[in-house]
Amino acid sequence: MPESPEVQVLADDLGARLAGRDFLGGELEEFRVLKTRARPLAQLEGHTVTGVRRYGKHVDLATDEGRGPHLVISFGRAGWAAWDPVTAETPAPVVAHLAFDGAQLELTDAGEWLSLGVSVVDDPMEVGSIAKLGADPLDPSYSRRDFDRVVGSRRKQLKALLQEQESIAGIGNAYSDEILHTAKIAPLAHAAALSDDERDRLFAAVESVMRDATAARRGIPIAELKAAKVASMRVHGRTGEACPVCGTTILDIPGGTGSSSGQYCPFCQGGVA
């Protein structure tokens, strides 16, 4: 969980609920969540949230029209957020409490190791993982030139390349599977080996899958976004089920384990290499 379609919906929800509210304070259940040890959450107290923006899988809460400090939430592999009180739909452990005037946000992490982080900065670009992000397919300015610059002649497996945040922002394990299935390309094929037609299909799939998913998630409460995402998957997480396109049994991609495992259709995508 989270990838840019869900994080965008979360950012929109935070923006609608928190705009104009003062930050009252934060409490950490896990001290490692704070990545800026010299800048505690207390530095945000008294500042007013005036904007929320997504960067890949990160959310930036700007204060005082950008003149105040920023609170950057980096969700990592298993982080998420919930409005207080936490509901049964969000059973993950709460690792931080963020209090605003009239609202409380709980940050959660469901992973075996902590992946969520928060940073207090003057500019979100001070967060290294944001500064290094590649072009974002959900950005209206995203172009074929951005895509070709990444794919180029690299001898890297496409499944891994699509998840490389420095190359393409916001795509993770699940949507990389969905993109490759839509494009009808094997997940372990190398970018350098793609034909012109395959490049065209992959570019179209990157744009359509990410944008369609974002549109489909709008209006869904943040506590229900994970379930909505899982339900929408055609191949990811569907090992042993029938491909919805051709009926072939969906298989695991060789080499994946646990939460990093991926799935594909051996008929639609032509094997694994």
UniProtKB/TrEMBL annotation:
List the residue ranges forming a coiled coil, or say none.
none
Name of this chain's protein: DNA-formamidopyrimidine glycosylase family protein
What reaction does this catalyse? Answer: Hydrolysis of DNA containing ring-opened 7-methylguanine residues, releasing 2,6-diamino-4-hydroxy-5-(N-methyl)formamidopyrimidine
Source organism (scientific name): Microbacterium rhizosphaerae
Keyword field? DNA damage, DNA repair, DNA-binding, Glycosidase, Hydrolase, Lyase, Metal-binding, Multifunctional enzyme, Zinc, Zinc-finger
Q: Which Gene3D superfamilies match?
A: 1.10.8.50, MutM-like, N-terminal (3.20.190.10)
Annotated Formamidopyrimidine-DNA glycosylase catalytic domain residues: 2-128
Per the record, the similarity remark reads:
Belongs to the FPG family.
Give every FPG-type domain span: 234-270
Which Pfam family, just one, is annotated for this protein? Fapy_DNA_glyco
Keyword Zinc on this protein? yes
Keyword Lyase present in the record's keywords: the answer is yes
